[in-house]
C-alpha cells in the first residue's frame, strides 16, 4: 500500500454520535463502489471478525457492535475506484452522510503509517490488527485443499515467517499492530480463523 496521508486527526461531528447507516445500505455502497468480489469478501470478513470481537471480548452493546461491524465493512470501500486517494474518499463520504465520528476515525486509523492517523481506542486498534491478518489468513486458506477446515495457528505463524508467501502483506504492520494490544498473536489468529471461515 502506498502513503496517502489524511493530514488531520479529527473526523466527523460529535453531534452524529450513534448515527450509523443500516447494514443493508452499507452493503449497497459496497456493491456500487467495489466490483471486485474478493475485495468485497475481505471487507465482509473484517466486519464479521470486528463484530464478533466487540461482542465476545469487549462486551459491547448492540449499537457499539454495529459500529465495529460498519467500520470493518467499509474500511477499504474506496480502494478499488480511488487507489490514489484511498481512505480519504470513504472518510469524506461518511462525513457527508453524517456517520458516527468513531466509525470514521476507526477507518481513518486502519493503517497509521499510510494515512497518518494513530489508532486511539480499542476499536481503532483492532481494525488495524485484523485487517492485514484477515487477508493473510484468507490467502492461506485459498491454497489449502480443505480451505479453512483443519487450519491451525502454527501453519499461519510459519507462513508469516516465509517472506515469499503473500509477499504484499507487510509483516511490520502486523508486528506493530499486535504490539499495541494485550492479546497474543496466536489468539488473534485463532479468533480470525473461527469467525471468518463461514463468511460469504
Ligand atoms: Fe483491508
Layout: helices, strands, pairs:
Blueprint: H1 23-33, H2 37-57, H3 62-74, H4 88-96, H5 101-108, H6 112-115, H7 122-142, H8 153-160, H9 171-179, H10 185-196
The site of fe (ii) ion (FE2) has 5 residues, from helix 2.
Give average pLDDT, whole number.
97
What shape does the CA trace take? globular
* Count of helix runs: 10
The class by helix and strand makeup works out as mainly alpha
Strand segment count: 0
User: What is the domain total for the residues?
Assistant: 1
Stretches with pLDDT under 50, minimum 5 residues = none
Helix content: 55-70%
Small-molecule binders here are: fe (ii) ion
Strand content: under 5%
- Main beta sheet strand tally, sense and closure: none
The helix/strand series, from N terminus to C terminus, equals HHHHHHHHHH
Straight-line N-to-C gap: 25 Å
Radius of gyration: 16 Å
Description:
This is Hydrolase. GO terms for molecular function: hydrolase activity. Keywords: Hydrolase. With 200 residues, the protein is mainly alpha-helical. It has ten helices and no strands. Helix 2 crosses helix 10, helix 7 runs antiparallel to helix 9 and helix 7 packs across helix 10. The longest helix is centred in the N-terminal third of the chain and has 21 residues. The chain is globular and about 45 Å long. The structure holds fe (ii) ion (FE2). The site of fe (ii) ion has 5 residues, from helix 2.
Amino acid at each position: 500500500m502506498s502513503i496517502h496521508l489524511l493530514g488531520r486527526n479529527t473526523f466527523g461531528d460529535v453531534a452524529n454520535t450513534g448515527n450509523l447507516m443500516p447494514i443493508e445500505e452499507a452493503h449497497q455502497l459496497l456493491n456500487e463502489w467495489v466490483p471486485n468480489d474478493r475485495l468485497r469478501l475481505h471487507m465482509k470478513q473484517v466486519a464479521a471478525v470486528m463484530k464478533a470481537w466487540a461482542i465476545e471480548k469487549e462486551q459491547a452493546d448492540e449499537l457499539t457492535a454495529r459500529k465495529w461491524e460498519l467500520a470493518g465493512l467499509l474500511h477499504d470501500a474506496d480502494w478499488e475506484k480511488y487507489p490514489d486517494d484511498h481512505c480519504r474518499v470513504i472518510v469524506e463520504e461518511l462525513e457527508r452522510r453524517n456517520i458516527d465520528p468513531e466509525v470514521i476515525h476507526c477507518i481513518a486509523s486502519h493503517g497509521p503509517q499510510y494515512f497518518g492517523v494513530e489508532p486511539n481506542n480499542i476499536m481503532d486498534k483492532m481494525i488495524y490488527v485484523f485487517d492485514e491478518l484477515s487477508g493473510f489468513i484468507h490467502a492461506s486458506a485459498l491454497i489449502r485443499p480443505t480451505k479453512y477446515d483443519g487450519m491451525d495457528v502454527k501453519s499461519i505463524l510459519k507462513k508469516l515467517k516465509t517472506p515469499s508467501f503473500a509477499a504484499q502483506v507487510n509483516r511490520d504492520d502486523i508486528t506493530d499492530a499486535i504490539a499495541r494490544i494485550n492479546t497474543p498473536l496466536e489468539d488473534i489468529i485463532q479468533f480470525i480463523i473461527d469467525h471468518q471461515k463461514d463468511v460469504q
